[in-house]
Specification:
2 copies of one chain form a homodimer.
Chain A: H1 12-24, E1 29-36, E2 46-47, H2 51-60, H3 65-74, H4 79-86, E3 93-96, E4 102-103, E5 110-115, H5 116-121, H6 123-146, E6 151-154, H7 163-175, E7 180-181, H8 184-190, H9 200-204, H10 209-219, E8 225-227, H11 233-249, E9 256-259, H12 264-277, E10 284-287, H13 293-301, E11 308-311, H14 313-316, E12 326-333, E13 336-337, E14 352-356, E15 363-367, E16 377-378, E17 381-385, E18 388-389, H15 396-409, H16 422-425, E19 428-430, H17 432-443
Parallel strand pairs in A: 6-7, 6-11, 8-9, 9-10, 10-11, 15-19
Antiparallel strand pairs in A: 1-5, 1-12, 2-4, 3-5, 3-17, 12-13, 14-15, 14-16, 17-18
Helix pairs in contact in A: 2-6, 3-4, 6-7, 6-13, 10-11, 11-12
Chain lengths: 446, 446
C-alpha cells in the first residue's frame, strides 16, 4: 500500500455514510468496538495479533491526490464532500488489548472513540488487519502447543491469500511462538528469523541427486539442510551418509535432513536409523508437507523422531477456520449507548472494559466506567490519543514473550487440540450493569 | 508493494538455491509449470485468474537498494552474490492460459522458460498470486451459476486475508461474473463498478430509524438503498412505505432495501408483500449476511423474491476451499525433461501444451511439440518473451466476457453446485508420448 492508497481500502458504504454525516452535520463522538461474536468449535481461544498494523494505519490515514481525483471523477460524490476528504485525519482515541493476549467471544479487543465519520471510515481495514492476523496467531499457537520444544517454521507464503497475508502471517506466527519464517521480506520487515535451504527443483536440476547434495554443501557449508525425498527418501538418506565423511573433511557439518512427502512417521523412523547407523546421530530431521497442528500432534504422539516442522498452507490460510465472525460495531454515539438488535447479531452496548479475573474465574465484560472487580486486570489499555500513539511499538520479541506466558497460563483443557466449548472452561461473564443497560435500551421504542 | 520490495517476497530457499546456482555456474534454461495437482470435491472446475498480476510481477522484478542492503547486512550471503542480485532481471519466456478460462487438475496454466535462477526465484510469488485469484474466481463462478440474472456484489474486503487479498478478490469476482464490489480501491485500480449504501451504525447514530432513512435519502437521492434490519426487519419495511410518498414529492426513488439478518427467505417474502401492498412494487430487495453459493441457490430454489446478493467472507476467503494444491514444478532443465517422483507428488515431465478437444471430449495434456490433435484449441499461448509482455493487458471486461462464455460451455453437470468428480465429466487425458516420456525417466537410474 502507498500512503493515500489505503484510504480507499474501505467499503463504498463508508464513503456514502460519511457524506450523509457531513450533509447532516453529524459530527458527534462515536464509540466502536472490534470483537468476535463467537468462537468456532475448532478454537478454544483466540490469540490477538494485528494491533500494531491497525494503529499504524490509523496514524497514517489520509487521502492521496490520486485517490481524491478518482473520487471526484467518479461522479458519485459532490465536489465539496471530496474537498473535505482532503483534510481527513484520524484524530480519535484508541484502547486495545496487547498483542499476544488470549481472548474470547464478546470481548472487545480494540475500542475506537472518534468523531463518527473517522471511526466509521476505518471499519473495513481495521477488521481486515486484526481478523487475519488473529486467525494466524491462533492457528500458530495451536501448532506451538502441539509441538513443545520442536522447531516450527512458517512455510506458507505461496498459498497465503496475497502478499500482505504472507507477511502478516509470518509476523503473527512468530509472535505466537513459531521460530521463524521462510518469507524473506518478513525477515527484512519484522526482524523475524528466516529459514530455508533447497527445493526439489534444485535436486532435479542436477543429473544425480548425490551431485546436487555435494554442490549444495559446497555452496552452503554453514547452513546445510538437505532435502531427501525427490526420488526415494531412504535412498536419499543413504546418499547423505555416503557423502558425510567427505564433507566432514572440509569441515562441513550436515545440520538436518528434510522429509516432504509420504508417510512421515515411517520415513522419519527409517531415516533416523540410517543416520544413527551411519554415524550421524546429530543430524536433525525436519518434516514438511501438508502439516497442521493435528498431524504434528499425531506424529509426536507416535514418538516420531522429528526435530522440527515446516507448516505452510494450513497456517497461512488458517485452513480449518479461514474466517471468524469478527465485527466492529457502534456501541455509543454522542454519549448515548447504542444497541443493534438484528436477529442473531445483537450487541452489548456502551464503551466497555474486559477484566481478567485470575485463576479459573475467567473474564468479566463490564462498562468501562464500572468499579473494577477485586484483583482483576483490565485488558484494554489506552494506546492512542488524538490520533497519535501513546508509545512506540513494542518490540515483537516482547509480544512473543507475552504470548508464551498467556499460553502457559491457559487451563490444560484449553491447551489441547480437542474441540472444546471455551464458555465452560473460561467463562466470560457480562456485568449486571451492562446487562441492565442492554435491557433498558431494548425497552426504549424506536 | 514497492518496486524492489517484491523481490524479497519469496521463500528464503529460493535465495540459497540461487547462490548455489551461481556458485556452480548452473545457468541453463529451465522450464517450470504452474498447475493444480487435484481438485477438491467441492470444485468441479477451476476458473483461472491472477495471470495479469503474475506478468506484471515478472516484468518489474528487481531488487531495490534497501533489499540489497538488508541481504548484505544479514550475513547470510557472500557479498559477490548480493552484488549480482543488483542486476537481476527476469528475461524469460512465458506461456499462459487466458484469464477466465476453465481448467482442471494437471493442466499447466502458466509455463515459465528462463535461466534457472530467474525461473526459480519467482516460484513463491507466482503461486501466491495465481492460487488466490483462481480460488476466488472459481468460488465467484459458482455464485454466478447459482444466481443467474441476479445482481451479485463482493462484500468481502473486511475478512479477506489482508489488503491485497481484498483487491485481488474484487477483481477475480468481477472477472468471474459478479456485478461489482464494495471495495473502493478495487474500483479505482481496476475500473470495477462499486456498490454500497449504509451500515447499521448509520441507523444507530440516529435517535430514530425513520430519521436515519429520511436523512440518508436526502443525502443520497440518486443511489438509495435502505438497510432495514437494524431493529426489526418488517417494521423497517413499513417505515419505508410510510416515508416513500414524501420522498417521491422530492423526486427521490427508493432503489432497494437490504436485508442482512434472520431468515432471509421469510423476511424477503414478508417485506416484498409490505412493499407491494404499500405501492412500491419497483423497489428491489437485496440480501446479505453469511451468504454463499449454496445458500443463494437454496433461496432462489424457494422462489425468494430477492433481486441481488452481497457475498462477503465466504467469497474472499473461499471459505469452503481456502486453498488448493497449486504448485510450480521444474519440468525440464537444459533441454532435458525432469520428473519429481516423491510419493503422491510425481509430476508429468517436459514443457507441455493443453489442448481443448471440444464438446464432451475434454482436454489433452501433451508435450508442447507434439502434433496438434484435430480441431483442438491450444490453451497455453505465448504472453511474454525475453521478459517483456507481447501485448498490453487485455481489458478486464474482455476477460469477463471470456469467463462467461467458458461457464456457458460447461456441461450441465459441472454447472451445478453438487460435489462432482470432474474427471468423468471433463476427461483430462495425458498424451501417449508424455506417458512414455515419464516411464522412460522412471527407468533411468538416479
Amino acid at each position: 500500500m502507498r500512503t493515500g492508497d489505503e484510504a480507499l481500502l474501505t467499503d463504498f458504504y463508508q464513503l456514502t455514510m460519511l457524506q450523509a454525516y457531513f450533509d447532516e452535520g453529524l459530527h458527534g463522538r462515536a464509540v466502536f468496538e472490534l470483537f468476535v461474536r463467537s468462537l468456532p468449535p475448532e478454537r478454544g481461544f483466540l490469540l490477538l495479533a494485528g494491533i500494531e498494523q491497525a494503529l499504524d494505519y490509523l496514524e497514517n490515514l489520509r487521502f492521496g491526490a490520486d485517490e481524491l481525483a478518482w473520487l471526484h471523477d467518479s461522479g458519485r460524490f459532490p465536489p465539496d464532500f471530496v474537498d473535505r476528504l482532503a483534510g481527513f485525519r484520524f484524530t480519535g482515541d484508541v484502547h486495545a488489548m496487547r498483542e499476544g493476549s488470549v481472548f474470547f467471544a464478546n470481548e472487545p479487543v480494540l475500542r475506537v472513540e472518534a468523531p463518527i465519520a473517522e471511526a466509521q471510515l476505518v471499519e473495513s481495514r481495521l477488521i481486515n488487519l486484526v481478523h487475519y492476523a488473529t486467525l494466524v496467531a491462533s492457528k500458530a499457537a495451536r501448532c506451538r502447543l502441539a509441538a513443545p520444544g520442536r522447531l516450527l517454521v512458517d512455510f506458507g507464503l505461496r498459498r497465503a491469500h496475497g502478499a500482505e497475508a504472507g507477511l502478516l502471517a509470518a509476523r503473527a506466527a512468530w509472535l505466537a511462538g513459531f521460530d521463524g519464517s521462510a518469507t524473506v521480506l518478513a525477515g527484512q520487515r519484522y526482524g523475524i528469523p528466516v529459514y530455508g535451504t533447497m527445493a526439489h527443483s534444485y535436486i532435479e536440476a542436477h543429473a544425480r541427486e548425490a551431485d546436487a547434495f555435494a554442490r549444495f554443501a559446497a555452496s552452503q557449508p554453514d547452513n546445510l539442510t538437505l532435502l531427501i525425498d525427490t526420488y526415494d527418501t531412504e535412498e536419499g538418506a543413504r546418499r547423505v551418509v555416503e557423502l558425510a565423511p567427505e564433507l566432514a573433511r572440509h569441515g562441513t557439518r550436515i545440520r538436518a535432513l528434510r522429509l516432504d512427502s509420504g508417510d512421515l512417521l515411517d520415513h522419519a523412523r527409517r531415516v533416523r536409523r540410517i543416520l544413527d547407523d551411519g554415524g550421524l546421530p546429530d543430524v536433525h530431521l525436519f518434516a514438511s508437507g501438508n502439516l497442521d497442528e493435528g498431524r504434528i500432534a499425531a506424529l509426536l504422539a507416535a514418538d516420531a523422531p522429528i526435530d522440527g516442522f515446516g507448516v505452510g498452507t494450513s497456517l497461512t490460510t488458517s485452513a480449518d477456520v479461514p474466517c471468524i465472525d469478527a465485527v466492529y460495531k457502534l456501541q455509543a454515539y454522542d454519549g448515548r449507548p447504542r444497541r443493534k438488535r438484528s436477529e442473531g447479531k445483537a450487541t452489548w452496548p456502551g464503551a466497555k472494559q474486559v477484566w481478567r479475573l485470575g485463576g479459573s474465574a475467567g473474564d468479566l465484560v463490564a462498562l468501562h466506567d464500572e468499579a473494577p472487580p477485586t484483583d482483576a486486570v483490565p485488558l484494554l489499555q489506552p494506546v492512542m490519543r488524538a490520533g497519535r500513539r501513546l508509545a512506540p511499538a513494542e518490540p515483537l520479541a516482547a509480544l512473543r514473550a507475552h504470548a508464551a506466558e498467556e499460553l502457559a497460563r491457559l487451563p490444560a483443557a484449553l491447551r489441547t487440540l480437542d474441540r472444546t466449548d471455551s464458555t465452560e472452561l473460561w467463562p466470560v461473564r457480562i456485568s449486571p450493569a451492562l446487562q441492565a443497560l442492554a435491557a433498558e435500551l431494548d425497552r426504549e421504542a424506536h
